[in-house]
Design goal:
about 220 residues; mainly beta; four-stranded antiparallel β-sheet; globular
């Protein structure tokens, strides 16, 4: 959010928790140089929150990561990738999902040193904030500035991980469709469903039957 200060606006990084009736439990002001992104609740009433660095023409000056807040709003743990964890800088995290055992799946984008290629990556962090695995997610289409961008993550009925991501229909043309990947907990790909046409999948949920419902938009005619 932003607030006016004279003729300028100042960004405020704010995380809040509320009672069912809307009463504020607590709020936390984040670093003004970071974006607070997607989050996933934790068993203690807190949340794990994606943190992505603000950047301009110079690119990100440090990697994105995860911060854990407990039920009282205290920052209790953080994770940022080491230099050799990803081939290029982790620019942002776009999807986060907490597992029942407390581990956290995340998915986002890296940006190469020449600022010419975004690549989809995903990983799993354990309960101590240590990276268990990280992998590059191949796009259905090769080439172009974007290989895609994660949109959402959730758990399948069998406890494995589902990730929804966009991908470019035609490399470099700015036209996208979406695909879903099912990961085992060791990071191996179980299956993949690729949507054709044009448009982006914006979200998905697992139905009581165990089937996956995907919602999005359509472009073109």
């Amino acid at each position: 959010m932003s607030r006016a200060e004279g003729d300028d606006y100042v960004s405020i990084r704010l995380l809040t928790r509320h009672q069912p009736d809307g009463t504020l439990d607590w709020d936390v002001h984040g670093n003004e140089n970071d974006f607070l992104g997607v989050l996933s609740p934790t068993a203690d009433g807190g949340a794990v929150v994606a943190m992505s660095p603000e950047w301009s023409e110079g690119g990100p000056n440090r990697p994105a990561g995860l911060d854990w807040y407990d039920g009282d709003g205290n920052l209790v743990r953080s994770w940022r990738p080491a230099d050799d964890d990803t081939e290029h800088t982790l620019r942002e995290i776009d999807a986060v999902q907490t597992l029942p055992d407390g581990r956290v799946f995340w998915a986002g984008q890296t940006l190469d040193d020449d600022f010419t290629k975004f690549t989809v990556v995903a990983g799993l962090v354990d309960t101590d904030g240590q990276l268990q695995w990280v992998l590059t997610i191949p796009s259905p289409v090769e080439g172009g500035y974007y290989s895609g961008q994660p949109t959402h993550a959730t758990l399948a009925a069998d406890g494995t991980i589902l990730m929804l991501s966009s991908y470019p229909i035609t490399a470099g043309a700015g036209i996208y469709a979406s695909f879903v990947v099912n990961f085992a907990l060791d990071g191996s790909e179980v299956w993949r469903a690729v949507f054709g046409g044009t448009g982006d999948g914006n979200g998905f949920e697992v139905a009581p039957s165990g089937n996956l419902v995907v919602a999005g938009n359509f472009q073109g005619s």
